[in-house]
Amino acid sequence: MFQGETAITVDDKGRLAIPTAYRELVVRECGNCLVVAYNPFEAGCLWIFPQSEWERVRDQVNALPSVKAVHRDLQRKLVGAAAHVEPDSASRILLPASQRASAGIEKKAVLLGMDTKFELWSEQAHLSRIRQTIGEDQISDDMAELRL
């Protein structure tokens, strides 16, 4: 559904404009409802889900037994801190200040369309990640099967 990389500016109030290429899709496919959550696996990044995709992820995460600390941590980061946002008339969403601060997202950010969700990266974290290459010792069996 979502694909591509877009440089984003976050305004002084913590709002970002949804890129023009995604606006109609967000209205039509997402019912103009999005959910912002921490990325529990990578620093410097937030996840932005369409409402329906979020509900699927939320239900899977909440189904994990909370007796394990790692499950509780995932539930805390994804479900406990999730924020529902709706684009305003200018197609801007307000990112929660606590999430922006935690991810280090300030004025400049990068929005990546990752099929069923967006990743919103601080500019510096994105540059750091994208500059890293994948070494031979990191290639999984599944990756080795790809014809790139």
From TrEMBL:
It comes from the Bacteria. Gene3D superfamilies: Transcriptional regulator MraZ domain. Residues 5-53, 82-125 form the SpoVT-AbrB domain. It is found in: Cytoplasm, Nucleoid. PROSITE patterns: SPOVT_ABRB (PS51740). Keywords: Cell cycle, Cell division, Cytoplasm, DNA-binding, Repeat, Transcription, Transcription regulation. The keyword Signal does not apply. Pfam families: MraZ. One of its GO terms (molecular function) is transcription cis-regulatory region binding. One of its GO terms (cellular component) is cytoplasm. GO terms for biological process: cell division; negative regulation of DNA-templated transcription initiation. Forms oligomers. Belongs to the MraZ family. This is Transcriptional regulator MraZ. It comes from Oleiagrimonas soli.
